[in-house]
Amino acid sequence: MKQWLSLAAAAVLVVSMNGCNGTDGVDGTNGVDGAQSSAVAKLSFAEVSAPVTDIEKMEIRTSPSVRNAQGQNSTLSFTKLIAASSVDNNETFGLLKDHNDQAITFSDGNPFICDGANGNARGSGLDHSSIVQKDGRIFMVSQFECEVGAMYGMELTQDTAGTLAVKPNTLKYISQAEGFGGWVHCAGITTPWQSHLGSEEYEPNARNFERDLNTTTMLSGDKNMDEVTKYYWQDANNTNAGANNNPYYYGYIPEVTVDASTAAPTYNYTKHFSMGRAAWELAYVMPDEKTAYLSDDGSNVGFFMYVADTAKDLSAGTLYAAKWIQKSAENGGAADLIWIKLGHATDTALKAIVATEPKFSDIFTTDTVQAGDTCNTGFTFTNTATGKECLQLKSGKETQAAFLETRRYAAMLGATTEWKKEEGITFNPQNKKLYVAMSVVGSLMSDSVGDIQNISNACGAVYGMELLDNNEIAYDSKSNAINSAYVVKNTRAEVVGSEVSYPAGSTYEAYSCSVDGIASPDNLTYISGQNSLIIGEDTSEHPNDFVWSYDLNTKELTRIASTPYGSETTSPYWYEINGFGYLSLVTQHPFGEVNSGDVDFSLVGTATETQKQSSVGVVGPFKYE
Fold first, then answer.
1. Is the terminal CB of the chain with fewer CB neighbours within 10 Å at N or C?
2. 527 domain residue, yes or no
3. How do beta strands 615-624 and 14-15 pair?
4. Helix (H) or strand (E) holding 351
5. Across the beta sheet with 44-45, what order do the strands follow?
6. Which pTM value belongs to this model?
7. Quick one: pLDDT at residue 557?
8. CA geometry: angle at 50 spanning 49 and 51, to 5°?
9. Can you spell out the DSSP letters for 199-264?
10. Domain range for residue 507?
11. How many structural domains does the chain have?
């Protein structure tokens, strides 16, 4: 079992690793595979106060110490690794590149850097960064959340005290040309086999694109698609070559593997078309290395499960969608889950289909929605992120529908598409629960019809999902066995935000969710063996976004980080690397998600361009023995 020991001379936390199967440096069980005692040690962070002064509101502030089971304290610090616009190895971190891997520039000649600065005029900025280990070396793969998605790799160094740093002259742009380009990269994970598994969020609406496309300009009025047309598919004369663009190029799960066999590593990129197409926040791989859960970020969306044919290989598998069977509407709600099979496919076959530049009308016939949300005979009513529709599947197009129009097809088959703003996912092997963040409980989740009928909560909730018991066989909705031992069977809110209204003129008047509770929970991670669920925020309900530690035993929340005004806390993620533990933290678009009516809006004018850059760093190190 794990046992907290005495402090090391360097004043870092020391913890026994007896009973753990490896330290591959990944979140939850993806490096510590769950072969541990059910006894869980207590990890207690010193709380970070909610910011009050202007200086506090403009800084990254993290917990200064942790207390172990014996009541001993050790110090913690935050180390910034790299920020957007940093230059190394003749590369600029966050610089976007086109389909020829050439730097994209604006009409004024300035480079297009996805830095999250300038009021989000340059996209949201840096999002998830995965730390991976290969051949005794440490690497980081980072992805950027702009319409034209970008990824960069770099090598990290680790000194004897556990301090991480970017190794000079190792920054490298990762080409995505083989996957038709990148798109609005959001969250991600480090897989159990030490690769970066990313995401492409807010897939373009192929039906609207086909309807609205101007075949002369190749623009459709869809902001994201038009940005990619103008910038990624531009030709050598800096004009658009948008005839190459297609909505079915985007909305998938990308993976980057690292070949560290040579001094200069190679980053290999692929898109997993067989994992389906939606507004992916992330895909979380379970300890069997073949089952993955996918969160669909948006309003009126689905929740999905993918089971690969072969462990450590996501290029072929079966895709499922969940159906919510309501049990309770109180405190975030509770339900049983049934899994509906959408189909089986391979990346190779689907990529060949996508390369033909299909249209929405190749897959579906549509009809007008009738009064009372009904459809004419032969059509199926759906209500998803793309609105209310009457759809009819064309003959022989089941595979295209399942994997290119995943959410629409799931709704047609009876899966629930009423979830709202699904975000981060993590797994706790001690209690065998999957945790999923829902940043808002609202829209179709909180109405009086359909599958989900919860009480609305603008502050959101984190849901716990129990797995089937070890001796249970999982079946889908048609009584076919599911080839996975990691199928979740129910869900219940574990942590729920609290809506409040502080009086005008009070310290927290800008807060519409309690300062002592979560608001719009976003990415999650589980600190291996310590019973601590880490919850990041992406919220406008707290003017400064927080990161929380939630004790799964005592149900206590502790604020462990505060990020600058207007920023989002992405990528809190637990890593174990060469005897040290780290909690990563990406601060996205500082001073970005704001409006002129905010109480603290004047801070935007005070902040420097450097302070506005998205960045990634780590809290720690925690030392293991």
1. C
2. yes
3. parallel
4. helix 347-355
5. 44-45, 65-67, 73-75
6. 0.93
7. 97
8. 105
9. ---S---HHHHHHH-BTTTTB-S-HHHHHHHHHTTB-TTSSB-GGG--GGGSS-EEEEEEE-SSSS
10. 14-203+250-624
11. 1
